[in-house]
Every structure is written in C-alpha cells, then in structure tokens.
Specification:
single chain, alpha/beta, five-stranded parallel beta sheet, 8 helices, globular, disordered C terminus
Length: 224
C-alpha cells in the first residue's frame, strides 16, 4: 500500500500560501487542496465549495458530533473551522497529495493525529511573508492597510484577523515541527523555478512522487 502523506502550508494572511499552491499545480504536481468548512460569512469574492464550505453553527456542531472532521476549532464564539476527513481519503484514493491550508492550532492537531494513528505522515511548513522579516509591527501595519483596501470586513473583524496573524507567526516560530519557508515572489533558480520549490523538495522529498511527467501533462491537455 502506498504511504499516505499530507503537505501542510500554515501561515498568516498575505504569506503567499495560495501562490505556492498555484505554482505547484502549474509545475505539474498532482496535489489537491482540502477545502475547509466554516461558519463565518463569505467574504467578497469567496465561493461556496471552492474557497470554503459555508455552513451554519448548528450544522457544524452536528458534523463535529458525527466525527466528520479530522480537526475542528472554534476560533471565536460560534465561528468554527474544520478539516473534513472525506476529502483527505478521496485525495489518497486518487493518488493525489492533499494540501492543508489551515491555522497553526489545526495543524498541531493534524500532527498529533498522525502520531496517534500512524496511518499517514504530515510535513508542515510555516509560510512567512517577506514583510515579517522587517518586524512584526511593520507586518501588522501592512496587513491592516491591505485588508482595509479590500473593503470586505468591518474594522472589528480586521483587528481580529491582524491580531490572530501576529499570534500565528509567533506560535509557528516556537513550534519546532514547522519548517520555515519565506515566500519571496520572483526569486528563481537557474532553471527559472521558484526557490521555495527547492525548499519544499528538500524537506518533503515525497513531493517528487506526485510530479506529472511533461509527456503525461501534454497528453492530459490534449484529452481536454
């Protein structure tokens, strides 16, 4: 039986997790983003079933009781997030590498689950934005300005997200199972491949198993 892996990308807003995922897809890696469930309201531009599955607090609590999630968390009062077990199983059944984009508490729980069940292994990267190198205050102000420009959240919600992002950076730095990954967009190696891909392959060598050959990629494109 093929060993089961999970690739974890954990980081605050603006760290570039989506960019990393999209780059790996463009490079031909057979990966699958696991779509979380949440009870918060959709932000502007978010799509149900693609960005998140949006459910009511009652529906979420029922699914938690049913053991539907590999991990779940109540971030604020009646604001839940959860990682569905069925999507992980489907990815493994399809020989895809599941990719988790969840907060550090959820990633810690998945790590504990991997150690308890010994059925899969998790390699988790702490993705840090370039601006975090310039100090947390600089990052905090940059993030707050960016969220204000989006005009998709109230001032109170922006404050909560900013504070949570700072706490996430601090927590990832002290937990030694997160592999640091600073996402520097535009930095590439001699072959034109983003440098962060080299870091991923160094610490998650199983990623190579999910690389689709150029020939198979071309055939797949022709069949569409």
């Amino acid at each position: 039986m093929k060993e089961k892996y999970i690739l974890g990308l954990c980081g605050p807003s603006g760290s570039g997790k989506g960019y990393i995922y999209d780059t790996l897809v463009d490079l031909g890696y057979k990966i699958k983003k696991i779509v979380s469930y949440t009870t918060r309201k959709p932000r502007k531009g978010e799509r149900d079933g693609i960005d998140y599955f949006f459910v009511t607090p009652g529906e979420m609590k029922q699914k938690i009781k049913q053991g539907f999630f590999a991990e779940s968390e109540e971030v604020y009062e009646d604001c839940f997030y959860g990682t569905p077990k069925d999507q992980l199983k489907l990815a493994w059944d399809n020989d895809e590498l599941p990719v988790l984009d969840i907060d550090y508490k959820g990633m810690v729980r998945i790590k504990e689950l991997a150690e308890e069940e010994r059925d899969f292994s998790l390699t988790a990267f702490g993705v840090f934005p370039e601006t975090s190198d310039q100090g947390l205050d600089f990052y905090k102000n940059t993030l707050r300005d960016r969220l204000k420009k989006r005009d998709t959240e109230t001032e109170q919600d922006i404050g909560k997200r900013v504070n949570r992002s700072i706490a996430e950076i601090v927590e990832m730095r002290v937990r030694n199972f997160f592999i640091p990954l600073v996402n520097k967009k535009g930095e590439v190696n001699d072959e034109g491949v983003p440098v962060f891909v080299e870091t991923l392959l160094k610490h998650a060598p199983f990623l190579k198993e999910y690389k689709i050959s150029d020939e198979n990629r071309e055939n797949a494109i022709k069949m569409k």
